[in-house]
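Figure caption, in words: inputs first, then the predicted bound structure.
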Amino acid sequence: MEFSHKAIEQKWQEYWEKQQTFKTTNNSDQKAYILDMFPYPSGAGLHVGHPKGYVATDVISRMRKMQGYDVLHPIGWDAFGLPAEQYALQTGNDPAEFTLQNITNFRKQLKALGFGYDYNKEVNTSSPMFFKTTQLIFELLYQNGLAEMRDVDVNWCPELGTVLANEEVLNVNGKMVSERGHHLVYKKPMRQWVLKITAYAEKLLEGLDEVDWPESVKDLQRNWIGKSVGAEIKFTVQNSSEIIEVFTTRADTIFGVEYLVLAPEHPLVTKLTAPEYKNAVTEFLATTKAKSDLDRQDNSKEKTGMFIGSYAINPANNKVVPIWIADYVLPFYATGAIMAVPGYDERDYLFALKYQLPISYVIEGEQHQQVHHKDGKHINSDFLNGLFTDEAISKAITVLSSTGHATAKVTYKLRDWLFSRQRYWGEPFPVIHWEDGSISLVDETELPLELPKMTNIQPSQTGESPLANATEWLTVVDSTGKKGRRETNTMPQWAGSCWYYLGYILMENNAMLDLRSSKAQDLLKKWLPVDLYVGGQEHAVLHLLYSRFWHKFLYDQKLVPTSEPFYKLVNQGMILGTDGTKMSKSKGNVVNPDDIIKSHGADTLRLYEMFMGPIDASLPWNPNGLDSARKWLDRVYRLVKKNNFTNVNNHQLDFAYHSMVKKGTEMLERLSFNTTISQLMVFINACYKDDAPIYQPYFEGFTKMLSLFAPHLAEEIWVTLQQESSIALSTWPSYDEKYLEKNEAVIAVQINGKFRTTLNVAINTSEADVLALAKVNHNVQTFLVDHEIIKEIVIKNKIVNFVVK
Ligand code: ANZ
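Bound structure (ANZ present):
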């Protein structure tokens, strides 16, 4: 007997909406803020990869609600951005209208999946109500010296008529091209807004110790911030008053310096280039401009450079060394100049080999033509002789500092954040440029500053955004008659996502509270930090770093109560195509959730995605797995239809039930969804096996746990059990330890005879159930992946052995 998902799913979705079942409550001291990385509402709609994270957060939100927490579980739209603008350009549509259509479609798709979002909290980054606060935060950043205009070498793409972020630029055959459309890109200086995220480098680094995030993500952020402890050392240019300052982490190698290298863009290059080298230097500069920073840092790529005809004096020994320029020295890192020590630095070594520059050694050890990494006593180094590296670094800095030639220095790789884009579909900057050259902010009372409606949003080929053509909007005259022009840049798509998680909290009665109001402050105190944040690994660096920066700034302004925004972070794995590769339109391996909802139902899709494997694993879509998930739901439904429930406990299910509740709850706390589902399956097997009327309170508890994964079917069963809807408002089941004693067997799981883990199961659990539980165990899975099981051996209550090849 099958249930009709079509009949029940829509019914319950309407019920939840009408009853406002998932409206955010304020009844409890315990709160759970459970957040998804909000989607960009693309024209393509959801694919089955989206729901994986969303189901996970929905499961936890539903559990927390039943556990009596106030739950905030919202959704919204990251609605500004390039794709909508490109689409609008190609089709002549208005990006605002197009975006709204997409949002309607996304919302419908999410509702069809039965998520318990509170849609009263919905935000849309492109709505004026929302970006009023984005603009306000920008004004606060500006007023606090953290936003300024600078001439920045940007990635200019003439074809798109816009500047691109580094991550929007690809390298094809040694040339920079745009990720979209593969148009040529080159570096060009432009006046841009920059946010001084570097002022927060240390705080962003330290904050990582406070949060419960995957170590891999923390490491990515640490590397991105890239803290280096070292020194700046001054070299005087021979026969000149100019000084070259280099940054080094290895001041101890000062006696091994063979030459200096300036970044080709270094401001001193022109001054220090001897006349006979001028033409060659100009040519060299042009080729460097077409190279991306990544390529310039890549050790496998050939390094190029040239001598510019001047010399500098080593402050430690007065040795005269030549000054070179080379692409491997980057202009925006540290001082943009280095002392080259080819004996100990890989890049310098390769460069020295190529250009036949001398290589000398200053640390004891084997000394032939190679880079040395081993520590040892310093030699040929005057006052550093006999010292090991750490001591030698300190001593070199101390000695050189005493003559004013060195300063201890901490440097970060993190750069200030290029915050403007030459596009239409983004937040306008609330800034006016006056004819006298001054700049002012749009008065706060005039926010939001909305985008003008424009029929033509073609890029203005000058590098300015299409807003440069909105004459009426652009022109401002103050009360004295002074003329001004509005800023034409717009903010990057990251801006809205920097604070949207605060926006949900501030959304009350279809309006956004002022961040600084006392009501807003009370709500922020209640809900922050986000307790669980689930989203894709692709946001490990930028979104998470930018939003942490804004959050820390707002914390310093005393506008948010916590120093970190997201306490626990989980990256869900991808759902791959059946062929194990990334789903993509071009490969034709994309699965559309709408189709699955039609054929198998939303409950099946949810259950399947949670049963596929650990939440953070990337796994291929498997239609058989989907069928099995549906079959199991039918099996549950058949049991209910037998309608054999009793209020008298025959105690046959005591262990199965209490262990399901205990283990299932613990597993959910660890976000181990697939193993939780196995526990539910084992309980259902026990019910079938007992073949007696089922003790109803146990089945109610089971249905509550089922409702996290298959909420529609669970509501339906709940009614059959003559309970009042909604099951989402019932209380989470509890267990009694007394039923768990003695009845448990500890089973050793082996793979090819090697012990891998133990499983605690009910005594006399069937062979099939023990095997199923073993296969979803994380420790076992790691050894089964990529292996074929050729034999399964079960010794009842004792051992499981998988023979694999
Ligand atoms: C001499 C030296 C000797 C260095 C040695 C390293 C090893 P991290 O740790 O990444 O910060 N450097 C400094 N500024 C640079 C720039 N703008 N572009 C490219 N390279 C730059 O690396 C710091 C080291 O990177 C510095 O220490 C400098 O080379 C180089 F055995 O100075 B070192």
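The radius of gyration is 32 Å.
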